[in-house]
Design brief:
single chain; ligand-binding face of the semaphorins, domain 2; Immunoglobulin-like; Rossmann fold; 6-stranded mixed beta sheet; about 20% helix; disordered N terminus
Length: about 775
């Protein structure tokens, strides 16, 4: 449903559940109303019928004055009028200033906030300049253009102040050369005017004097560092939180102009220098220097954005073209910030600041601080140049001074609150605030008649918002049941089935018996525990019980000639008849002219069971018994009456599958089974000839075993002999090799005596 401004309005619907009192009703939905009229509900009807939308209750006959439906209330505590211009007193730019809301959970409440930017509102501008060596030309121009800055501010307001600060980077490696001489003079050797390296220095607090400003800026000299990104976030954080040092006024538009030609370091970059302590967002200025520069990490963008918003400071990033895109992305994360492009020597800084200020002040953004739990706030800007930046803020652009605009604020509380909570709404960058205090309206003001023995409650109870609250010892819808000496809890226990809900939540427990309620269609629940109703049976063709039966306690009771869970079928078994005239071969039931098979048998007529165990195996013990016995009576216990008839034949006559199994004596037996009508009923044919294997030849086995042992023994002996022979050959070869390597020398043994003695005959002449 469309409402004002083309927004959707909620349709009045009461979604209720487990309603037992007026409070339960009004907290179940924003449009739920309670009828406190006596006798509005009939005997046995649940009191939840009193809870509905106002229109439905009136349609049922409830009088308007008997309907309880709390509404939102609003009380404006402070509403100072908007100022026409900025004078000696502090101007009021937003109204109202304080408002109290008492809200019903889920019911949105709307109110308007008006804003008008005062003409000549004070401006505090803090010029924060990068003094790294690359900004040398820019510093010279700022010194020259100091007077022009004051002229530009005086066009905006007659009450302007300006301050000055400078930054480079942390004086530790890898950001700055830590050589002692380089720390004192980080510039080139040719540079005569160069100040020592520093992180952030506050130079001049807010002053209305252009001469003081020009003098202090003229005293500044360039410095230097190593890497390209600078410590600009460090400087901005200190400028934001050190309000006393900077000289921010309580009632002024606060601006920080950051002039740089480089990017910025942020949280985490300090690890490169071994700085692990996170930024604590506190002021650490000693002698106009940031003393914790080398001890704390850089702040994150989120930390800086929070402190700028908290202190109502709007940053203007005056940067060179090479880092323009970087700072444009930064402005997306910092509310009420703007970026402008500096010329290479900052010659256009005055025009840039003037343009940026106009952009900031002409765009009004209203939003809130941290909301209490279960509170939602949405905004709708009521102005010509509305910008849609989501429901959590209202934005108007091109707002001129002295032009009044409005914002429609919608506050919704989702749950009841035990105590008052508050939050503030304010325009970003402006001090004015609206404090919203919220409480919830979750109680019923029924103005009940006094007395504890009202006649409507059988003179044994009192009236609470139209329903009876029974005195001790009495229970029931109208307190007409005297508990007496019985314990009330034991009486109520008899109304619970299996310790479940009392009367299944469909009735009231009256004197130990369930008094069932009526259904939404007008019929009554029934059963001992009100567990039955006649409206939730199976449907067919969108008809309850197909229109061929009656619903009774969730089950269809079919008319004669119909069957099925929803009475959707005529009684017939033509589709279930088999060739032998049976119904589903006795292995299923015929429902809706179709077989519903049992035990794994499959349709259409339950003839086969593909997943069942093979009958050749399940009937083997019975067939084996019948094959060996002469009478069927001997196998009654084994067969269990599953074989109707059997024959011992020389040749099979049945056309079924042949079974080939071993009987109890180990002989192969052949038989065929024919399944009859029924679950486990067969005829059998058994071949008279069995295939019994011949017994083993003991003599042959023994002779063979002995022969095998002998052969194995001979083979082992031959193997041992072969191994010994191989070893001898190896030793002999080794001996031969050693013999060849030996060397013998010819010499006489001094101990040797020749056994032969030669004697010469002295008389022999040889003739």
């Amino acid at each position: 449903m469309l409402g004002k401004h083309g927004l959707c309005q909620q349709e009045e619907v009461c979604s209720k559940s487990a309603i037992t009192s007026c409070k339960d009703c009004i907290t179940s939905g924003p449009f739920c109303s309670w009828c406190k009229e006596l006798n509005f509900t009939k005997g046995g009807e649940q009191e939840a019928a009193r809870c509905e939308t106002r229109a439905k209750l009136m349609a049922r006959g409830c009088k308007r004055e008997e309907i309880i439906s709390p509404q939102n209330t609003e009380e404006i505590k402070q509403q100072d009028p908007l100022s026409k211009s900025s004078g000696s007193t502090e101007p009021v730019q937003m109204t109202p200033q304080k408002i109290d809301l008492k809200l019903r959970p889920g019911l949105p409440h709307k109110f308007k906030v008006s804003f008008k930017r005062a003409e000549g509102y004070p401006v505090d501008l803090y010029y924060l300049m990068d003094l790294s060596y690359s900004m040398k030309d820019d510093l010279a121009n700022v010194k020259r253009l100091g007077g022009n800055l004051f002229d530009a501010l005086n066009k905006i307001t007659k009450d302007a102040k300006i301050g000055f600060g400078a930054f480079v980077d942390k004086t530790v490696l890898p950001y700055t050369n830590t050589n002692e001489e380089k720390l004192k003079k980080p510039c080139d050797e040719s540079e005569t005017q160069c100040q020592a390296a520093f992180g952030y220095r506050h130079v001049l607090s807010m002053t209305p004097s252009r001469d003081v400003f020009r003098q202090k800026v003229a005293e500044q000299y360039i410095s230097g560092n190593l890497d390209s990104p600078e410590g600009s976030l460090d400087a901005m954080m200190q400028a934001a939180v050190c309000g006393d040092k900077i000289g921010w006024r309580n009632s002024s538009t606060r601006l920080i102009v950051l002039a740089t030609d480089a990017g910025f370091h942020m949280a985490g970059d300090g690890k490169l220098a071994g700085i692990l302590e996170p930024n604590d967002e506190l002021c650490h200025m000693t002698g106009n220097l940031y003393e914790k520069s080398n001890d704390m990490d850089y702040p994150s963008v989120g930390q800086l954005a929070m402190q700028l918003e908290k202190n109502n400071i709007q940053p203007i990033f005056a940067v060179t073209e090479n880092v323009n895109n970087v700072y444009k992305e930064l402005t997306k994360m910092i509310p009420k910030s703007v970026v402008g492009v500096l010329s290479s020597d900052s010659n256009n800084v005055v025009q840039l600041i003037e343009s940026a200020y106009n952009n900031l002040t002409s765009k009004v953004t209203v939003t809130h601080d941290i909301l209490p739990d279960n509170v939602r706030v949405e905004y709708l800007a009521l102005c010509e140049h509305r910008i849609n930046e989501g429901p959590n803020k209202g934005v108007c652009d091109q707002v001129q001074a002295e032009k009044e605009i409005s914002f429609e604020v919608t506050v919704t509380v989702d749950k009841c609150m035990e105590e008052e909570k508050s939050f503030t709404i304010s325009p970003l960058g402006i001090k004015d605030k609206l404090t919203v205090t919220i409480s919830t309206n979750c109680e019923c003001q029924c103005n009940d008649p006094e007395g504890s023995n009202h006649i409507h409650c059988n003179s044994t109870g009192s009236i609470t918002c139209g329903i009876c609250k029974c005195n001790q010892g009495f229970v029931g819808q109208f307190c007409n049941c005297a508990v007496g000496t019985k314990d009330e809890s034991s009486l109520r226990a008899t109304c619970r089935r299996q310790n479940g809900t009392e009367c299944e939540g469909r009735g009231d427990c009256v004197c130990g018996a369930c008094q069932c309620h009526t259904t939404e269609q007008g019929t009554s629940y029934h059963g001992k525990y009100c567990e039955c109703d006649d409206e939730h049976c199976e449907k067919y063709d969108n008809k309850l019980c197909a229109g061929n039966g009656k619903c009774n306690c969730g089950q269809c009771r079919c008319d004669p000639g119909y069957q099925g869970s929803a009475c959707q079928c005529k009684v017939s078994d033509e589709g279930c008849r088999t060739l032998d005239g049976s119904i589903c071969y006795g292995r299923g039931n015929c429902e809706c002219n179709q077989c519903k098979c049992k035990g794994g048998y499959q349709g259409p007529q339950c003839k086969d069971c593909s997943g069942c165990p093979s009958a050749c195996l399940t009937k083997l013990s019975c067939i084996s018994c019948l094959s060996l016995s002469k009478s069927k009576e001997n196998c009654i216990n084994v067969c269990n009456n599953t074989i109707s008839e059997y024959k011992k034949v020389e040749k099979f006559n049945l056309q079924s599958k042949e079974c080939h199994q071993k009987d109890s004596e180990g002989c192969w037996i052949k038989f065929k089974l024919e399944q009859l009508t029924g679950m486990d009923n067969y005829n059998a044919e058994i071949l008279t000839k069995r295939e019994c294997p011949e017994p083993p030849n003991v003599i042959a086995i023994i002779a063979g075993s002995l022969a095998a042992v002998a052969v194995i023994g001979i083979l082992l002996l031959m193997l041992v002999k072969l191994l010994i022979h191989m070893k001898d050959l190896k030793e002999f070869k080794k001996f031969e090799n050693e013999k060849k390597k030996s060397k013998w020398a010819n010499a006489d043994n001094p101990l040797f005596q020749n056994p032969t003695t030669t004697v010469a005959n002295p008389l022999f002449t040889g003739e």
